[in-house]
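Regression test case RT-17, inverse folding.

Input:
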């Protein structure tokens, strides 16, 4: 037992446990004394307070069913921490759910990142367990943890189980979009779509296709900041609870500094030591091989930027030319996350990707990526995780496009596109904003046919604002009713990772800051050539200069904005820099 006045206490005022990050009263001894006085009001003993302190983020919210299992996970993390001799301290942070975030979850991701960073920084913890799952939560937590640079371990809430309807297996949200498309086309009536709303997301947990949440669940394993095999365990399973307990135990090892080679060292294994250029390259390989969400690329860029690194889009594209899609999951394939998990999960995938990965990269488990791959479970006759010899797609899931429409780059998930549209020239049908699209898309008088290119602008980070997942422009109703399933669609918006279609996204710079997308007019010809990685507006340069002279920024960018919206509009970066704030 020690006290602030004990001159012999070896760790007196050392920055560990309760002594970390003292509130400033001008007298550190008094600060610690006062802290202990208040925390003892909660019934803690001196023995407990002398242990390594493990912070646990509580992101439970009644508005976030993707995090519905968080209370049970916290209970198990605490058990793991205490079994290993630490003191668990749970604390709340912002929680974000895709469908309960106005205007968009992306608008709020940086708020959660700042909240997470400052709560880790402000409070005394020797390591932290980050519990997240729904799309923006994991990137926000990693952004915050990298900036705070306290040893951190990511625990994923886990994917939902699949749903069933009339003998068909369903999942959020690839099938949400497909079935809603059928409803718009008139082949599913009001009564059936109501029934379906109760069957597409049948359990707590995150969307169970290879959307953004699942993508991030895989990437945290590839980055080495989650325990191996834990990114894909279904939210409802006992193994998920055991993963939480194991993460709690490992967080104590991190706090003690016993994880990395060489044994116990002060300061643990910090995110800045783990999330290196090599780790991000491994993550890019896995992102291409899983046919992951395009959002994953934006989030990786944001996390890397916090680590003082950048994601090179050309390198990402080059990786995609060499690394095939090996996972047979929707929307690129046919199956769901629970099937991927039981086929061997990310360790087995990394085993198949050995030739492309930096195998000596260290992970939070103390093992290298190569050791994790070697230990992967072999599941006889599974077909979900393909070998390099029989991939789902010959190349990676995403391609980076350039051209006069996207000088800063654009991205297409070509693994989930129509092969016949990957080289296509069509007439532009332009929507000036999300509202304009909603108003006119289904107008029977809209001049549009199946060969046209649908263009949406002012839907980027500043333009919307919040870069909504509006890049999946719906097929105009009259064409959908005529059986058209896909068209080339381009925008400066994002798209849910769960969506299917020939859809060019993240056009940079966005139109609202003067990007060329703002110069497109109805009837212009646009050429998409994915094999050549090009997106071109076939209008001569002199005409584009004339249009540029007449261009005006959206009104909201010159109007006064207060609060977080003002901070966001003044500071948000473009997609190629991860849409982080410039001051972060
Ligand atoms: Fe939370 Fe899909 S809505 S993961």
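Golden output:
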């Amino acid at each position: 037992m020690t006290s602030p006045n004990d001159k012999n206490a070896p760790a007196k005022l050392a920055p560990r446990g309760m002594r970390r990050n003292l509130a400033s009263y001008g007298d550190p001894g008094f600060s610690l004394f006062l802290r202990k006085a208040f925390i003892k009001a909660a019934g803690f003993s001196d023995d407990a307070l002398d242990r390594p302190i493990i912070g646990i983020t509580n992101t439970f919210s009644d508005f976030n069913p993707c995090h519905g299992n968080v209370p049970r996970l916290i209970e198990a993390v605490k058990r793991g921490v205490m079994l290993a001799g630490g003191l668990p301290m749970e604390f709340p942070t912002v929680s974000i759910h895709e469908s309960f975030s106005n205007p968009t979850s992306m608008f709020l991701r940086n708020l959660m990142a700042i909240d997470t960073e400052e709560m880790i920084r402000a409070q005394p913890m020797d390591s932290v367990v980050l519990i997240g799952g729904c799309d923006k939560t994991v990137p926000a937590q990693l952004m915050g943890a990298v900036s705070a640079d306290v040893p951190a371990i990511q625990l994923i809430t886990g994917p939902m189980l699949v749903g069933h309807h009339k003998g068909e297996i369903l999942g959020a949200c690839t099938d949400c979009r497909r079935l809603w498309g059928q409803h718009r086309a008139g082949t599913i009536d009001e009564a059936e779509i109501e029934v379906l709303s109760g069957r597409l997301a049948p359990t707590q947990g995150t969307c169970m296709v290879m959307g953004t949440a699942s993508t991030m669940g895989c990437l945290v394993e590839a980055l080495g900041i989650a325990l191996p095999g834990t990114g894909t365990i279904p939210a409802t399973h006992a193994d998920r609870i055991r993963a939480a307990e194991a993460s709690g135990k490992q967080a104590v090892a991190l706090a003690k500094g016993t994880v990395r080679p060489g044994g116990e060292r002060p300061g643990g294994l910090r995110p800045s030591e783990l999330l290196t250029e090599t780790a991000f390259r491994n993550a890019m390989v896995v992102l291409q091989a899983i046919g992951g969400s395009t959002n994953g690329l934006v989030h990786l860029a944001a996390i890397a930027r916090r680590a003082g690194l950048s994601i090179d889009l050309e390198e990402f594209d080059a990786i995609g030319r060499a690394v095939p899609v090996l996972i047979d999951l929707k929307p690129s394939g046919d199956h769901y996350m629970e099937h991927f998990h039981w086929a061997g999960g990310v360790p087995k995938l990394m085993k198949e990707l050995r030739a492309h990965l930096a195998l000596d990269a260290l992970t939070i488990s103390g093992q290298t990526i190569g050791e994790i791959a070697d230990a992967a479970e072999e599941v006889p006759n599974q077909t979900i995780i393909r070998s390099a010899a029989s991939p789902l797609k010959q190349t990676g899931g995403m391609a980076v496009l350039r051209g006069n429409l996207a000088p800063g780059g654009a991205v297409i998930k070509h693994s989930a596109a129509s092969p016949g549209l990957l080289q296509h020239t069509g007439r532009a049908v332009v929507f000036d904003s999300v509202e304009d699209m909603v108003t006119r898309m289904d107008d029977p008088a809209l001049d549009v046919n199946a060969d046209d290119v649908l263009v949406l602008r002012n839907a980027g980070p500043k333009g919307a604002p919040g870069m909504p997942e509006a890049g999946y422009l719906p097929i105009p109703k009259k064409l959908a009713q005529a059986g058209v399933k896909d068209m080339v669609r381009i925008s400066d918006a994002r798209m849910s990772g769960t969506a299917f279609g020939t859809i060019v996204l993240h056009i940079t710079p966005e139109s609202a800051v003067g990007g060329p997308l703002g110069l497109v007019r109805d009837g212009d010809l646009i050429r998409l050539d994915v094999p050549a990685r090009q997106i071109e507006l076939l209008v001569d340069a002199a005409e584009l200069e004339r249009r540029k002279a007449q261009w005006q920024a959206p009104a909201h960018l010159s109007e006064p904005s207060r609060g977080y919206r003002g901070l966001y509009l003044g500071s948000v970066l473009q997609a190629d820099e991860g849409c982080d704030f410039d001051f972060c």
